[in-house]
Write a structure and sequence with these properties.
- With 84 residues, the protein is an all-alpha fold.
- It has five helices and no strands.
- Helix 3 packs across helix 5.
Length: 84
């Protein structure tokens, strides 16, 4: 039983590292409209960030990814930022 749990823990650890590396590379490669946007664009999306993606603050790339994932729930002003 202990060896089975040890193998499961090792697999989980490797999978977590691989997914973290993949996420990091994806975020690094992706452009960040929120981080690089104008003050008006940031102002349009700030309420949505607090409402939908508060757990990602202060990571601008993670916020951008979260907002893209939540596109259906965004305010009209913030949707316009991502449609540009």
């Amino acid at each position: 039983m202990k060896t089975r749990l040890a193998r499961l823990a090792a697999f989980t650890s490797r999978a977590r590292r691989a997914s973290t590396l993949g996420l990091f590379l994806t975020l690094f490669a992706a452009g960040s409209a929120f981080a690089l946007g104008s003050p008006e664009q940031r102002r349009a999306c700030t309420p949505d960030v607090y409402r939908l993606c508060a757990g990602e603050i202060p990571n601008a790339r993670a916020i951008t990814t979260c907002l893209r994932r939540q596109k259906a729930s965004l305010s009209e002003a913030c949707k316009a930022v991502f449609e540009q």
